[in-house]
Structures are given as structure tokens and as C-alpha cells.
Amino acid sequence: MSQTSSSIDKKKVVMLPTIKEEEEEKEFYICPITLILMTDPVICADGHSYERAAIEEWLVTNNTSPSTGVPLPHKHLVPNIALKQAIEASN
What we know:
Blueprint: H1 19-27, E1 41-43, E2 49-51, H2 52-61, E3 78-79, H3 81-90
Antiparallel strand pairs: 1-2, 1-3
């Protein structure tokens, strides 16, 4: 009795992240201003995440994005809860 592809059990393959992938993922956890792991990440009007204290200090004397140099439409900061949880889960 021959087996066809439809009768073969399909198994799920789970790929574990490599060390390189884990390191690349953690790069997203680093503040582009301080170059240190964020503990209180916030999203700025430029769409980038920064450590709250670092971007607040930047915004005191600048009206531009520290990442792109483009003028910011506003200086409101929003907590990046998902990023904070990801950082906490990775430690």
C-alpha cells in the first residue's frame, strides 16, 4: 500500500531562535540615544522608541527626531507597553 502526500502526517517544525537572532532582537531593546537597554520605553512622534528620561532630556532643547533629524510634529510621548513587556520577558 503506497502512501500519498495527503495521507502522511504533517508535523510542525519548531525553529528555536539562534544566538544571532536573539542578539538582533535585543538590539530593538536598546535606546538609540543612550545605547543602553531600555527600562521605561516610550514612543515618540517619529515612531521610534526611546528610554523615557533620555528622550525627555533631548526634547528640552530639540524639536527634531534624534533618530532621523526630521522635525517632530509634537512632543507627546506614549508608553511602549508591549516593548517593555518584551524586554522584561527576555531577562
